[in-house]
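User: Now give one protein:

AI:
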Amino acid sequence: QVQLVESGGGLVQPGESRRLSCSASGINHGINAMGWYRQPPGKQRELVALIITDSAVTNYNPSVKGRFTITRDNAKHTVNLQMNNLLPEDTAVYYCNVRNNLFQNYWGQGTQVTVSS
């Protein structure tokens, strides 16, 4: 049974930092990539950051480049998103995503991040 367990969401003030973590289990056929997507209120889900597990090549949404950093621990099947200098427009539900080597996608339940003073 596939499980993606996310943690780290909450309410933060503009300019503060927050770290999201996601732990994956039950993924068959190996993990190709891990990442984070988000869905702001009233908008579509968008990529935040992605990391290829073997090569550590990363891909970032331009709006978070230089502020967010994605890392992974292949042995523990975890992916983390360090978010610095958070802005009100970063407010969204953040979803962990895992893609296996058959390019099947699995999603976490989502964690709310609210940036507000």
Q: What stands out?
A: The chain is about 0% helix and 55% strand.
